[in-house]
Design a protein that fits this description.
This protein is an alpha+beta fold. Helix content is 21%, strand content 14%. It has a domain of 258 residues: paralog of FGE (formylglycine-generating enzyme) (Alpha-Beta Complex), CATH 3.90.1580.10. Strand 5 and strand 6 form a beta hairpin. Helix 2 packs across helix 3.
Length: 451
């Protein structure tokens, strides 16, 4: 009895020592360190803010599709330059190498290219995962047969990868569909008050979408877009030659840009899980139209260009961007077509080439009246068009103007569009990552990738 009494006192003491909230509601305590959203490499912090979207001094087409509207935008990180050929090439090479390893894993020495057990925990992988430490045998007969061009299509007999086979398979969550209300043809749901989403009663897997897309850029876009112009050297070398490593990638359609963002998210998540045992909480994606314009303004509200002011040249007569100046003198700004990223000065938030060089895909779908349909807080008009949908549903907003555009298309308010399955030699993209936490000052000291 005495032992039982002593044990009771010990348990009571331990409980009283651990329960320091005195019975009050204080929330769940976590043992981890306070959360701090680190600055992603090569990205610039864009603070939250409010501005008048759509205010411009010109409307060349008299389209009246940029009605002024005061909106507010959350903070986010944005790539300081457009995605370059070298960066997008990493994505293409990853897809190429993963396909090659998968083919080799089905051969006689396939066990070398697969990992069936976690070396740290001993847990079994079901199914096994690819072994990225094993070197690829590019001379393997099966690999050459399945991944390389057939002999009848080889130029001068060169053994090359068949880029038509470089498909990336990925998954994404259709939150727009998941958020919709469901009306059931059921007696229990005839009442409008009960016609809400039946939480917990629907298989969430129906909102997990699987897509498969070829990731190689359309290198023939240079000839297709300008059929009566000599662009053959760019078609042959622009994407893969080291001379163009730090030029903005082009020939990438909207679907490929979206897939790149998903791959980039998975790439960083994989690293964080291996190093810290946890994944990041914010994914990479394309910027919304409102985010893009807010970032392009650089804090200079009511100014037509990212650098502020109404002029395209500085006091020394030098152009601020790569576009089609004067009466079509392409080289007056220093470049005939695209130029290296970061060549011109950044805007006040440290973002380069928000006007000119290449135009940029946004996350938003294009509709002339979308400004009047969206909220004034983080507005975004978007939908996921299918291949079978009519062309008008596949229009995505393109912003910023390019090397082939006149100054009007460089203005931060100018809206244009292109079809999501179309690649152009003057459209590229950059990513954003939503910022988690309170607003903060500028991120001086960040890791830069300007060359």
């Amino acid at each position: 009895m005495k032992k039982l009494l002593v044990l009771s006192f010990v348990i009571l003491a331990l409980v009283s020592c651990s329960d320091t909230n005195q019975g009050e509601l204080v929330g769940v305590r976590k043992q981890s360190q306070p959360f701090n959203h680190e600055d992603p490499y090569g990205m610039v912090f864009v603070p939250l803010g409010s501005y008048t979207m759509g205010v411009g001094g010109q409307d060349v087409a008299s389209s009246q599709i940029t009605q002024p509207k005061t909106i507010s935008v959350s903070a986010f990180f944005m790539d300081e330059t457009e995605i370059t050929n070298n960066e997008y090439r990493e994505f293409v090479y990853w897809v190429r190498d993963s396909i090659a390893r998968k083919i080799l894993s089905e051969g006689d020495n396939g066990e070398a290219y697969m990992i069936s057990q976690n070396p740290k925990t001993g847990a079994e992988y079901d199914p096994p995962i690819l072994n990225w430490e094993e070197d690829i045998d590019w001379n393997d007969e099966t690999l050459v047969e399945e991944l390389f061009l057939p002999e009848s299509e080889r130029f001068f007999g060169r053994k090359e990868i068949d880029t038509r086979k470089l498909y990336y398979e990925y998954y994404w969550i259709d939150l727009q569909s998941a958020a919709k209300k469901e009306f059931r043809n059921d007696a229990n749901y005839q009442d409008a008050a009960l016609a809400n989403r039946p939480q917990g009663m629907r298989d969430r897997s129906v909102y997990i979408k699987k897509d498969k897309i070829n990731v190689y850029p359309d290198t023939l876009a240079w000839i297709y877009d300008y059929a009566y112009s000599f662009n053959d050297p760019l078609t042959e070398k622009y994407f893969w030659h080291v001379a163009y490593d730090h030029y903005p990638v082009v020939g990438v359609n909207w679907n490929q840009a979206k897939a790149f963002c998903i791959w980039r998210t998975e790439k960083l998540n994989k690293y964080l899980k291996s190093q810290k045992g946890e994944a990041m909480l914010s994914e990479f994606r394309l910027p919304t139209e409102a985010e893009w314009e807010w970032a392009a303004r650089g804090g200079n509200n009511l100014n037509p260009y990212p650098w502020g002011g109404p002029y395209t040249r500085n006091e020394r007569g030098c152009f601020y961007a790569n576009f089609k100046p004067l009466r079509g003198n392409y080289i007056a700004d220093g470049g005939l077509r695209t130029v290296i990223v970061g060549h011109y000065p950044p805007n006040d938030w440290g973002l380069y080439d928000m006007a000119g060089n290449v135009a940029e895909w946004t996350n938003s779908a294009y509709d002339p009246l979308s400004y009047s349909q969206t909220w004034d807080m983080n507005p975004n008009y978007t939908y996921n068009a299918k291949d079978s949908d009519p062309a008008i549903m596949k229009r995505k907003v393109v912003r910023g103007g390019s090397w082939k555009d006149i100054a009007y298309y460089l203005e931060v308010t100018t809206r244009t569009y292109e079809y999501q399955d179309t690649a152009k030699c003057y459209i590229g993209f950059r990513c954003v990552q939503p910022y988690l936490g309170r607003n903060k000052g500028d991120n001086m000291g960040k890791a830069s990738r300007v060359y």
